[in-house]
Amino acid sequence: MTEITLDESKLKEILKSAIIELIQEQKEVFSDLLAEVIEDLALEKAIKEGENTEPVSREAIFKILEGKG
Fold first, then answer.
1. Is the pTM of this model over 0.70?
2. Interacting residues of 14 by C-beta distance below 8 A, sequence separation 6+
3. Which of 42, 69, 38, 37 is nearest to 56 (CA)?
4. Position 65 confidence tier, pLDDT thresholds 50, 70, 90
5. CA Rg, the chain, in Å?
6. Please, what's the b/e burial string for 28-52 (b: 16 or more CB within 10 A of its CB; e: otherwise)?
């Protein structure tokens, strides 16, 4: 049986190359994933900001959404 050895720098180079190739081949998947992460972060920020504000009635929210606010 043949033993294969890789030094750490060669292994890093191979992994970087594989990751870059994967990203290039799956651009749409990574783009969707990144968009989802950004949306989740924005939602988390909005929730945290909302915890420090006064409550608003459901009716007031729908008036704003309908353009009557």
1. no
2. 6
3. 69
4. very high
5. 24
6. eeeeeeeeeeeeeeeeeeeeeeeee
